[in-house]
Amino acid sequence: MNVIEVMKKVLTDYPHISDFINGEVHVDFTEESDNVYGISSTNDSLLKKDILGNQTRTNNMVLYATNQSANDFDRLNNSTFLLDLGYYLETVKGQEVTATINDVEMSGHIQSVSIANAMAWGKSEDGQYITYQLQIKVNYTLGSEE
Predict the structure, then answer these.
(1) Distance of CA 130 to the CA centre of its chain
(2) Do residues 100 and 3 touch, judged by C-beta distance below 8 A?
(3) 3-144: which CATH number, 3.30.2000.10, 2.60.40.10, 1.10.580.10, 3.40.50.300?
(4) pTM attached to this predicted model
(5) Cα 122 versus chain centre, distance
(6) Which residues, 6+ apart, have CB-to-CB distance to 10 below 8 Å?
(7) Which residues pair with 48 in a beta bridge?
């Protein structure tokens, strides 16, 4: 699985995800309805490469989460969920990642996940739902399988 697929699975496997999601974590998609989440990869960058071709990379993602926001109680629950999810994501490491770069199959592991800027990003026209964003940074390694 590539880094996006792995992080989708990590989010889906979060023990409390069913408290806030009806269904699945979408990729590059979310909508203005209650309990809908989508993860989007914004870029992937090479941090360093050794003489053997082993790579250290980072992938920046944004998780968009849309939830009921009619009152302060709802908004506090949403923010608390994102806070707890951030704590969970910071413990993630070791999951296997694969990639094909310039026709070379590579595999490696997630080294760390960090989060930033969990905040309200927008609201629905009727004001019933707020979409929150949580920026996720995934550092991982890749090595040639040859």
Answers:
(1) 18
(2) no
(3) 3.30.2000.10
(4) 0.81
(5) 18
(6) 89, 92, 95, 113
(7) 56
Check if the beta carbon of residue 129 is closer than 8 Å to that of residue 34: yes
**Predicted local confidence at residue 26, as pLDDT:** 56
Closest by alpha carbon to 145, among 93, 94, 99, 95? 99
Residue 8 to residues 54, 63, 107, 145: CA-CA distances in angstroms? 24, 10, 18, 24
Q: CB–CB of 49/102 below 8 Å?
A: no
- Quick: pLDDT tens for 113-132: 998 876 667 776 776 777 77
> Could you state, in order of their start, the residue ranges of all structural domains in the chain?
3-144
